[in-house]
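Try it yourself: sequence plus pyridoxal-5'-phosphate, in.
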Amino acid sequence: MSESLPHAGRLTIDCGALADNWRLLAARAAPAETAAVVKANAYGTGIDIAAPALAKAGCTTFFVAHLSEAARVRAACRNAVIYVLHGLPAGGIAHFAKLQARPVIGSAPELAEWQAQGGGAYALHIDTGMNRLGVRYDGLAEFDIPNGGPALLMTHFVSSELPDLPINAAQRAAFSLARARFPGVPASVSNSSGFFHAERLAAEQYRAGYALYGGNPLPGQPNPMRPVVKLEAPILQVRRVKAGETVGYNQRWTAKRDSLIATVSVGYADGYPRNGANTDMKPGGHGRLGGVLCPFAGNVSMDLITVDVTDAPAGLAERGGWISLIDEVLDVDRVGAACGTIGYEILTSLGARYQRRAIGG
Ligand SMILES: *Cc1c(COP(=O)(O)O)cnc(C)c1O
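Structure, out:
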């Protein structure tokens, strides 16, 4: 079985932590419902792993970006309510019926096509300032809402992780204005950070993505969420490098002392950003061995990363050992920052070559 053959790295998904995170958010949102956003393969954790774990915790509504993702959620959760954020692709209505999925409709042509072909329940996306998808809140007067109306009215925050920015209050006001046109229709708002706003937008449903998977919804403050993802890379070789020698492509890292370098079997082809390189010019990513943070040495290659394990506990840096690249200390926010990006991109880039293992289910 290919499962047991060598692979890039070992990805462990803690379903107990995932369920705890959903419960923490659900308690904050109550009495509003907490829906789970499982787009992008459940933020890299695996729809087939995350969706059933969330359903078991009590989640009944799921959001995905694409119909193909809706199909995977449906296969994993027979009774889930599934919304497709990207709406109705031209000619795609039959797929919604087959999957019992609902589009998040955001334009007049989409709604016209949905209605003309007898589509069922749908959500209407109200754009309150993102200017990306959705019907503008101030354009609803010209918008013809046919009989029945939407099953759900939704909007999305521009900068919910920065609650003091005026755009948040502006979006709350715009959404309240739009809601007045749809008496009795439940509202779905927010993303992870919105669960923690002091001034919360009244809604029947909140949507959580990033925080479910352990990302910090409160940048600059302690993370209230439990880590969900652990990534470990096997050590292929360990070598001694003399002071003054360089490591890796293009001589980007020079040993300042006699050093011990471990080469691990993960690279940018596995979604670890090449920008995580630790060079003579700029700091970069770390691995952890025996609890000790070990800086990368030089470029991140396609399939390999070289790690300076000189300061790791003696005896651990050995062929066949494992260095962790994402864990409770090297959390996704920290790894994102070290690579010049955000934890969201670290999670959603988690590679196809990893062996995924679910624990705590
Ligand atoms: C991705 C997404 C979310 C989830 O956002 P997080 O910040 O990951 O919690 C919620 N709503 C919409 C419309 C989204 O596209």
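One thing you can check immediately is this: The pocket of pyridoxal-5'-phosphate is lined by residues 37, 39, 85, 156, 191-192, 207-211 (CB under 6 Å).
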